[in-house]
Amino acid sequence: MAIIGGGYIGVELAEGYNKSNHEVILFHKKETLLDRHIEPEIDDKITNLLEDKGIQVKTGTIVKSFEDGADDTLIVKTADEAFEVDMVVICTGLLPQADLLQGKVDQLTNGAIVVNDYMETSNPDIFAAGDAASVKHNGLQTDVYMPLASQAVRQGALAGINVLDKRLRSIGTQSTTGMLIFGRTLACSGVTLAMALDAGINATKVAYKGSYRPDFMPNAHKIEIELVYDRNSRKVLGVQLWSKHDVSQAADTISALMHYHGTIDELSFIDMLFSPNFDQPFNYLNLVGQLAVKKENGYLRT
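The structure corresponding to this sequence follows.
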């Protein structure tokens, strides 16, 4: 199986075909998988995990063409290699299908329909939602195209509520996502460091590694966290978590914190329950916040 595109769908398909005893080649044109969502350190772990399972990962590789092969196979050609496969799956991302409104409403450069907080377009008689519409990214403070199922559901509900009477405003998004891959959880919210720097934010990050609960407890799985924040305002801008433990709800916690403009100082001591069954006396989110505070106060080597 050849899979073209190393985003969430491509990586999940690679796992699925691998588990059903298929040989898998995953092509991705960028140098890192999931490049819009995670830091390079976590990307390396995902790439290594896929390769350990026998999946060929071809990053920095562009597929140039397909040709018919022998016995109903296909030849997948890159700039300097050719691969004979039984099937090709293309999952290279989404584009908004909004040609119907071309030139009639405001759109982003990729064609996504720009909507306000009520899902109303620049034409007050037209509403838009989901994969055809823009969304306000709270971290970047701009309209972006972000075709996520969770966001589409919320926008669709808002459009239905507001179409006759504008009653409920969108509160934007932190782009919170997650994936289970070979028994590991990847959970993300907010922006990566590269995205923050590209937006002109004076951002940096810290990395936490440790057990999610005391080591004397069984299955005290290791957890790794990358935390991105604004050095000027000290606001949390993004987080990525990676562990055998289910850390998905931790990304939701950070999403809520970011929505209310939470800082690394608040994250350091925000009230979290403690039980050896669930976490350390300081929750791992407290601990990564404390690392960021130490870095800003000059107590952490960078």
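The radius of gyration is 21 Å.
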